[in-house]
Amino acid sequence: MEFNLSAESKLMIKAARDFAEQTIEPIAAKIDGDDAIPDDLLPKFAKAKMLGMMIPKEYGGTGSTALNMILITEELAKTASAVYWSMALNNSVAETICHWGSDDQKELFIPPLCDGSNYAAMAFTEPATGSDPAAITSTAHSDDDYYVLNGTKRFITNGQRKGYGIFYAKDETEKVTAFVVDKSSDGYTCSKPWALMGLGGQGLVDVFLKNVRVPKANILGEKGKGFNVLLRWIAGERVQQMAFMLGMGQACLEESLKYAKERIVKGRPMTHMQGFQWMLSEMHASIEACRWWTYRVASKQDEGDEIQVDSAALKLFIVPTIQEVARKALQIHGSYGYCKNYKIERLYRTIAHAGVTGSSTEIQKTLVGSYLARP
Ligand SMILES: Cc1cc2nc3c(=O)[nH]c(=O)nc-3n(C[C@H](O)[C@H](O)[C@H](O)COP(=O)(O)OP(=O)(O)OC[C@H]3O[C@@H](n4cnc5c(N)ncnc54)[C@H](O)[C@@H]3O)c2cc1C
Fold it and tell me: Fewest 10 Å CB contacts: which of 98, 169, 211, 330?
């Protein structure tokens, strides 16, 4: 088993760290506060070769690996900024189209996601369902060479930003089909963004589909087999989300160490007190465990293994573990940690998201438990 990172991976980590520190960190608090991402950021990710990570070069990608995507995620996550999710969605949606799409779909939809000119979206949640995609009520009716889509999608990241999204709707057979939808189509409208606890700038909107005509050529994968597209995407997205948590956990530790070394308690820096040393050591050990398991699951993905259960177990472990790391970090900062002047405040709020998005912690328990209990 290989535990050493390649020279290429180390270079990518360094590039992502520089990008995070120079391009995102200086504006991260403003993005969060203004709830808006500057338009030029996604093209900057493209220029830094962080879009199209798992896409062949012929479609504008870099032909890299799932593990490298995880490694750069960890660095970008240290900013605790929602901009990561625009970059991640462009990567994961492009990879999904590359996996399931026809040659025509790949040529049409992937390059604009790799060059940062378009924003991807993935739309499955609806007002009446998030955890149970089988309960989707959006419909797709056949009409000549088109499907006509109707319904409401809830909490769609980048639903309102220019580009393409993968939308799920029930066709005339009541089965769920995945469609690539142009977000500038007639009949496609959005709500104002939801005001979130963290992740300011995420651009989370409801999308209203009213007689949106989608060419039949835009069906992704097989008609009626949309769940296969969705479940495969969610498994990969879970690993990326856990790398995002891991990077934020590492930032919590770094911020805590910086603070504790400077803060004088009883005439000495806090780091001299055993209680705080213990908290810091527990944070470090937790983060290391999260790190190596995340790398392992990403490596399995690169080896072509099935990661549905691994990614669910990973999420089950990492969400509470990193949330506890964030709690300790806030405690170490005392009341300063509760103030927006300190980065730990943003980290704490952002870290709260992971148990209820993508698919919730409880759903991971059901997934892993039913796998273990299989006959
Ligand atoms: C920042 C953010 C970004 C998002 N981006 C997107 C996006 O781009 N696209 C998209 O489609 N959605 C997106 N979502 C929506 C998100 O994925 C869903 O909200 C999530 O899947 C949970 O669905 P729900 O809110 O309807 O919760 P519900 O499904 O109503 O669940 C509520 C509670 O019940 C529990 N529960 C539900 N069913 C079961 C069960 N069978 N067994 C045990 N417990 C259960 C859940 O774990 C949860 O605790 C986003 C949400 C956020 C906050």
Answer: 211
pLDDT at residue 142, rounded to an integer: 96
- The CATH fold of domain 7-114: Butyryl-Coa Dehydrogenase, subunit A; domain 1 (1.10.540)
Question: CA–CA separation, 13 vs 246, rounded Å?
Answer: 14
227-372, which class in CATH?
A: mainly alpha
pLDDT digits (tens, 9 = 90+) for 89-118: 999 999 999 999 999 999 999 999 999 999
- Is the CB of residue 156 below 6 angstroms from any atom belonging to ligand 1? yes
Low-confidence spans in the chain with pLDDT less than 70:
1
Topology alike, domains 121-223 and 227-372: no
Atom of ligand 1 nearest to the CA of 361: 47
Single-letter amino acid, residue 197: M
pLDDT digits (tens, 9 = 90+) for 132-164: 888 999 999 999 999 999 999 999 999 999 999
What does each C-alpha distance from 72 to 53, 59, 76, 240 come to in angstroms? 10, 21, 6, 10
Distance between Cα 361 and ligand 1 center (Å):
10
> Which atom number of ligand 1 is nearest to the Cα of residue 123?
11
Which ligand 1 atom lies nearest to the CA of residue 202?
A: 1
Residue 1 has a pLDDT of 67
Ligand 1 centroid to Cα of residue 311, in Å, is 17
pTM: 0.97
| Residue 211 neighbours by CB under 8 Å, 6+ apart | 148, 149, 150, 186, 187
The CATH number given to 121-223 is: 2.40.110.10
pLDDT of residue 90: 98
* pLDDT for 222: 96
